[in-house]
Amino acid sequence: MYKVNEVFETIQGEGSFTGAPAIFIRLQGCPVGCSWCDTKHTWEIKDELRQPLGDIVIKTSETEHWAGVSAEDLMALFSREGYQAKHVVITGGEPCMYDLNPLCEVLHSKGYSTQIETSGTFTIKAPAQTWVTVSPKVNMAGGYKMLQSALDRANEIKHPVAMQKHIDELLQLLQHTDTTAKLIYLQPISQQRRATELAIALCKQHNWRLSVQVHKYLGIS
């Protein structure tokens, strides 16, 4: 069973799938503790806030409520809601707190592609064909360490950036990582002007890519 905070269909706004229609499955629970996190309502799992899956889908605001569901429950929900997207993004929270193999395997069997968005601080349990986006979280309040295995598994590394120290952290992480077949993105935190200018300059310097959270500019989920 997966603890799901919300499920919705939208346009992917970040990284290499920017612009692609996608169904987002947001899982509940994250102990990493990023100070600038924009989904802090997913951090804690409170038993008293469990709800039916139907109530999760019709949320009108961010809440800590969650539903316990199976992969089959989610397939039935996709059908019931009439979702058309064939790309599924599993995010959080920290989705890799869960074994994502069963969920991804069911999705693949139904013709969906899958993507995980993770901090890289938990072992990634997912099929080889799942696209893995690692947004490295270094020296966060929860005290979790970046896993080399997560960086090695990543198809893309999308690094949040606000200042030069974040660039230095990324360069240190990449020292022991073969990036030949990986996409490297810098993503300005909170769309700050200084952060964006820094990210653009470093993308040009290192031949990396810029991720600008298009959904926030568009004002969509």
Automatic annotation (TrEMBL):
It comes from Rheinheimera maricola. Keywords: 4Fe-4S, Iron, Iron-sulfur, Lyase, Magnesium, Metal-binding, Queuosine biosynthesis, S-adenosyl-L-methionine. Its cofactor is S-adenosyl-L-methionine; Mg(2+); [4Fe-4S] cluster. Binds 1 S-adenosyl-L-methionine per subunit. The lineage of its organism: Bacteria, Pseudomonadati, Pseudomonadota, Gammaproteobacteria, Chromatiales. This is 7-carboxy-7-deazaguanine synthase. Its EC number is 4.3.99.3. Homodimer. HAMAP family: QueE. Pathway: Purine metabolism; 7-cyano-7-deazaguanine biosynthesis. InterPro entries: 7-CO-7-deazaguanine_synth-like, Aldolase_TIM, rSAM, rSAM_QueE_proteobac, rSAM_sf. Belongs to the radical SAM superfamily. 7-carboxy-7-deazaguanine synthase family. Substrate binds at residues 11-13, 26, 91. Catalyzes the complex heterocyclic radical-mediated conversion of 6-carboxy-5,6,7,8-tetrahydropterin (CPH4) to 7-carboxy-7-deazaguanine (CDG), a step common to the biosynthetic pathways of all 7-deazapurine-containing compounds.
